[in-house]
From TrEMBL:
Pfam families (alphabetical): Hydrolase_3 (PF08282)
Name listed for the protein in its UniProt record: Cof subfamily protein (Haloacid dehalogenase superfamily)/HAD superfamily hydrolase (TIGR01484 family)
GO molecular function annotations of the record: magnesium ion binding; phosphatase activity
GO CC field: cytosol
Amino acid sequence: MIKLIACDLDETLLNSDKKISEKNRIAIQRAKDEYGVLFVPATGRGYTCIDDVLDTLALRDQEDAYIISNNGGILCTAKDYQKLQFHALPFALACELFQFGYEANVCIQVFTDKDVYAFHLNEDEKKWLFMFKPDSIICEETSLAFLKDTPIAKILFQNTDMAYLQQIAKQMQPITKDKVSVSYSSNRYLELNAIGVDKGLGLRELAAHLGIAIEDTMAIGDNLNDYAMLKDAGVAVAVANAVAEIQAISDYVTKANCNEDAVAEAIQKFIFAS
């Protein structure tokens, strides 16, 4: 019996307008109220970048609500941002990753527990970033020395050309091999976390914290940063717009895409109709 749903946000729960549909919201609320199922956003974004989600789902009002953020880099409570786990990138390694991206003139975002620092920010990405995080900090620094005393949750590189990001990832292998968890999201981000850190780790840690068997969890996602979470969950669901690699490992692919209430479809099938 499913007791916990871990769900990706962008291109999964959220539609193209970055909103939660009313049908999805009602299904999530009913799953909690009538079936006791916890709904946990599992996102590459930081906690401070998901205000709309927290508000729409009223998660800040719930004592038993949690967030898997920064691709598993931070596991926290939704109500008051109490961090249960924080898996930071080692600072020297973060500096290496940053330097590589900086010299390649890539758009870089560095996530700490509360802030997002942006470097080489292009106009397209500026629009998206400030939609989620209006107080993001645009930086002119040429190194991360100013963050030496601040734990770094993750680093991402942004480009709308996925082939370019894959090429960058290949070039970075001397730095990342056996040291960095590398993933992709939203068909525009190369995500870099500490080794072993991913949404799957976040799901396992939260399930253990709550005393829930991993077999009693469901994960819903669309892109490669959801891969580990889907592999670990008792039930893996891909939305119709998911990339092929995610659909291939999932137990079920929704008929609906993220603009058609895909999450509500998954909840209907595995919670209400089970």
